[in-house]
Amino acid sequence: MTDFKDMLESSDYCNWMKCSFAQLNVKAVLAEIVEEDIKDLQKQLLHNIQTSKGLSSNTTCNCCQIQNLLPCRTRKLCKFKNSACLFHEDASLTPRRCPTNGLCDDFRIGIIDHHRFCWPSWKNTDASKWCTDSWTIAKCYMPPDGYLNVNNAEETDFNGVLSVIINCTDCQRRFSEDLNNPMNVCTKVCFDLTNNV
Questions:
Q1: Residue of 114, 140, 144, 141 lying closest to 44 (CA atoms)
Q2: pLDDT tens-digit profile of 101-112?
Q3: Which residue, among 77, 97, 99, has the nearest Cα to 88 in the 3D structure?
Q4: DSSP letter at 177?
Q5: Which of 43, 58, 102, 170 has its CA 20 to 30 A from that of 177?
Q6: How many whole angstroms separate alpha carbon 69 and alpha carbon 91?
Q7: 85 - beta bridge partners?
Q8: % of residues, the chain, pLDDT over 90
Q9: With contact defined as beta carbons under 8 Å apart, do 41 and 35 qualify?
Q10: Cα 120-194-26 angle, rounded to 5 deg
Q11: d(Cα 160, Cα 128) in Å, to the nearest integer?
């Protein structure tokens, strides 16, 4: 019990707690901003695709899976065992065009076009929800591992939210600093967090 009391009275522990609370508060604010930006991106992509293809404004797709939309030999996804791709192993999940006039194919291209480095994290996303769940799109801009079961901004950790800001070019409008610069305010925060934990 005295060890615990000593720990609570330690200035290092108090500073660590203050930093943790500050990070939680900053993450909550950033998550709201990112959620709004991703909802705007989803609406913009869907509207542009519907307009360019002459589809009605209520046309959506919920039947495509990411394996259908990506060619085999997709970076960081396709792994081979005995010449069979483990990501595309189910015969029903071979790459094919979206049956809704290519809507999801264009969504995939839009997600890539809005990714600062053009390499979305396809492992996290569910293409069948792109038209209805904006956070499924946000997960394309997060690190490839650890975010598959994150369903909204609130459940997403600080690193995931910050990754969306760094990787999704639509978040640039919130910053006066150019996020294309390798050492910008967001990458500095990521660097500081990983080196001080």
A1: 114
A2: 999 999 999 999
A3: 77
A4: S
A5: 43
A6: 14
A7: 80
A8: 47
A9: no
A10: 80
A11: 21
